[in-house]
Amino acid sequence: MSKYFDPQERAQELRDFKDFLAPLKGKAGQLMQALHHAQDTYGFIPPEIQELISTELKIPMAEVYGVITFYSRFTEIPKGKTQISVCMGTACYVKGAVKVLEEIQMVTGVKAGHTSEDGRVSVSTTRCLGACSMAPVMTVGHEVHGRLLPKDVIELLKHLKYDEQAKLEAEAFLAGEGK
Predict the structure, then answer these.
(1) Segment (H or E) for 139
(2) Which strands make up the sheet holding 143-145, listed edge to edge?
(3) Each residue's pLDDT tens digit, 7-34
(4) What is the pTM of this model?
């Protein structure tokens, strides 16, 4: 069982999701539709939902998992209230994205591919943000920041430290109040 998802507490949501899957059975694109719906509904795709999709749509679990891990849109862990992503495309990588990522991980205490325990911050990498001329590039939420040096990260992310209101909002969001 996922530490982020309790099937007993979400029994009604699971029944609703199963109802959503019923008309998809055997249709073209059924897996992608199911995964998009799960990601939008839960904010991530826990193992319990993966198994339900596999069982209901009669798709091997390996295929479900393979699609989830192939597409960056899907995630198996909840995203934090603030999502930070660093481009690791060629231009960004060559111009120092690794150093920027290391600084982000140090400032936030969150490794790439993870979410902070309090749900406030997620850190990830991506292949390209389409802003190569501004390399290296990162996003904080929907804001794009380019031509970064590691020292820029502290200023960009200082709002994430010691912000009691942000902590309360993140806790409410994770508890399902902010959806």
Answers:
(1) strand 138-140
(2) 114-115, 121-126, 82-87, 138-140, 143-145
(3) 888 888 899 999 999 999 999 999 999 9
(4) 0.65
